[in-house]
Amino acid sequence: MIRIGHGFDVHAFADDRPLIIGGLNIPHDRGLAGHSDADVLLHTVADAILGALALGDIGKFFPDTDDKYKDMDSKVLLAEVVEKMHDENYEIGNIDAVIMAQAPKFRPHIDDMRESVASILKTSVSNVNIKATTTEKLGFVGRKEGITSEAVVLLTKWRNHNG
Ligand SMILES: Nc1ccn([C@@H]2O[C@H](COP(=O)(O)O)[C@@H](O)[C@H]2O)c(=O)n1
Ligand SMILES: C[C@@]1(CO)OP(=O)(O)OP(=O)(O)OC[C@H]1O
Fold first, then answer.
1. Domain carrying residue 53
2. Considering the domain boundaries, does residue 129 fall inside one?
3. What's the CA gap between 23 and 115, in Å, rounded?
4. Best CA proximity match to 97, nearest among 39, 45, 163
5. Mind listing the pLDDT tens digit for each residue in 99-126?
6. Contacts made by residues 11-14, CB under 8 angstroms, sequence distance 24+
7. Is 162 a member of any domain?
8. Which ligand sits nearest to residue 102's alpha carbon?
9. Which of 65, 68, 69, 74 to probe ligand 2 with, by most ligand atoms within 8 A of CB?
10. Does residue 96 sit within a domain?
11. How does residue 7 score in pLDDT terms, banded at 50, 70 and 90?
12. What is the CATH number for 104?
């Protein structure tokens, strides 16, 4: 049995915040605004998994009205979503994600991001693809107002799980 999910997220740039993407601190002059650490890539992946399981979205489980999640490390958020996935007897088949940002350049960090995301997802790095693109200076991404990300994920039934 396989299930497919799609995730999409946007965060605006903000001064005096670190840029955290894929669980890594990426050197840049600005970070992203958000209730949590605003890790747009991990939010996208979490939403794609919840979508595949028809469980809703991250706002349902981690509401931005709850102070408990203020400045939350999104690695913890995604790990909780992975637990829900395992509870439903699914594991990652593969994931393909794209980050849309005019700056910074993510190419030098992509392999570290893949390792980071694969480790949270408890899957092999060969199951995780992450891409980056500019929007050729068009739109809010092109004007460097924010970063957006999209992901598709394929889940497969967990063969080694009882039940
Ligand atoms: N923030 C970004 C955006 C792009 N890249 C890399 O550059 C390549 C070319 O980007 P275009 O938007 O001109 O297609 C892209 O394929 C990425 O490898 C990047 O590292 N960081
Ligand atoms: C992660 C949460 C919760 O801290 O906050 P944000 O960092 O604002 O992220 P977003 O993707 O807008 O929505 C999910 C929120 O519930």
1. 2-157
2. yes
3. 10
4. 45
5. 999 999 999 999 999 999 999 999 999 9
6. 11/38, 11/40, 11/146, 11/147, 11/148, 12/145, 12/146, 13/144, 13/145, 13/146, 13/147, 14/38
7. no
8. 1
9. 69
10. yes
11. very high
12. 3.30.1330.50
